[in-house]
Design brief:
The chain is mainly alpha-helical. Helices cover about 80% and strands about 0% of the residues.
Length: about 400
């Protein structure tokens, strides 16, 4: 690393044989603690309003939280997060994000203004840090300039939506989120302005998947505590942990390894575009799926011997289906091949979803768990040789 880069706290350009081994810092993990709380707040808000309208609002809120986290994943990939400007920015962003997370349950109600103002501030802080990072690089300045427009317009629309309610408010939120998220594509067109450190970027997103899975385990614990510890609750909790373990396996056994290697092999613009598509965009359905699953499991533990209501049943099945759909897109983007076992699981879960609200919640959870476990079991056996090559870096 040059003296100038070291002084500025910048990660050096990557994609070359001398790329240093930059990993996620303790400060980034500390930053993620606020995101953990925000995910918990989303799950709690969905549980408090288990309706289709509540589900739509919850997904819009989750979208804004995710895009905020994504923005700082790019910041800390661009800058050394535990040095200088980036360190101060992360602490400031944590403070604002904590207020945003506290406002999640009332984001469409009494705390709408607090949420909107916090979201606007935390998005503007991101673009300010990126703007000041490399003042002499016109390509970076142009990319950040494009990002600054969408990251202002989107949050301002959400602030404007506080004067509305019902369908109109939701529609403006949806438009705002589309505009804000489009900034990721606009600012990375050509990919050249963003020198992505592959190892750090992949690890950062792998850790946030663990964070989300951990939140589903928290939902398991909360649901079990509220239900009381009897035989049915214990069985439901064990099925829940088996389901979460299967989802962990689906990502970390092979997928995460292959994706990181593929990102590291990419060069220049291709790497920036792959990072944007595979991680910033295609990880959202995975995270959303885990949050929906957490709600379904929480409701199952709350009343395991009764059928789930339609919305929680859809979340239980649809959450796992959405998680696998994200994996399908992830694989298509990275290696241009279709995962048929996971596509089969998505179809099976879609077929079972209408039935899930007609049977006891414990039965529904058992079926969903069986599907998720079957996917990873089949892949481990059917692709054993290829799996071994990937995991042990054989030829």
């Amino acid at each position: 690393m040059s003296a100038t880069a070291a002084t500025a706290g910048l990660r050096p350009p990557d994609g070359h044989e001398h790329e240093p081994d930059q990993r996620v810092t303790p400060l980034e993990l500390f930053f993620d603690l606020v995101f953990v709380f925000a995910l918990t707040q989303v799950t709690a808000a969905l549980a408090a309003d288990p309706t289709w309208e509540g589900l739509a609002r919850g997904m819009l809120v989750l979208g804004t939280l995710w895009w905020t986290w994504v923005g700082y994943a790019w910041v800390t990939n661009r800058l050394a997060s535990d040095e200088g400007l980036a360190r101060v920015a992360l602490f400031a962003a944590m403070a604002v994000m904590l207020v945003v997370a506290l406002a999640v349950p009332g984001a469409f109600g009494d705390d709408a203004v607090v949420f909107a103002v916090g979201y606007l501030l935390v998005r503007q802080l991101q673009t300010l840090v990126l703007w000041r990072a490399e003042p002499d690089d016109p390509q970076v300045r142009a990319a950040v300039g494009r990002l600054a427009v969408t990251s202002a317009v989107g949050p301002l629309l959400i602030l404007g939506a506080t004067a509305l309610d019902g369908t109109a408010q939701g529609a403006v939120w949806a438009l705002a989120l589309v505009i804000d998220v489009s900034g990721g594509w606009l600012s990375t067109r050509g990919g050249g302005a963003w020198r992505v450190h592959a190892g750090h970027f992949a690890e950062r997103h792998a850790l946030i998947v663990i964070v989300a899975l951990g939140e589903s385990i928290v939902a398991l614990g909360v649901g079990a505590e509220a239900a009381g510890l009897d035989a049915g609750t214990i069985v439901a909790a064990l099925l829940g942990i088996a389901l979460v373990a299967a989802l962990w396996w689906a990502y970390f056994d092979v997928v995460a390894i292959v994706a990181e290697r593929r990102l590291a092999q990419a060069q220049g613009a291709e790497r920036g575009e792959m990072a944007r598509d595979s991680y910033s965009y295609l990880h959202f359905p995975m995270i959303a799926g885990i949050v929906l699953l957490a709600l379904g499991v929480k409701k199952t533990l709350g009343d395991f011997d009764e059928p789930l209501k339609a919305m929680p049943a859809a979340c239980l099945c649809g959450g796992v289906a959405l998680y696998h759909a994200g994996h399908i897109g992830f694989r298509l983007r990275n290696v241009r091949s279709l995962s048929r076992p996971r596509l089969t699981a998505v179809v099976a879960l879609a077929v079972f979803a209408p039935v899930a609200s007609e049977v006891e919640a414990l039965v529904a959870l058992a079926v969903v768990t069986a599907i998720a476990v079957a996917v990873v079991t089949y892949e481990a056996l059917a692709y054993a040789e290829a799996r071994d090559r990937v995991r042990h870096a054989l030829g």
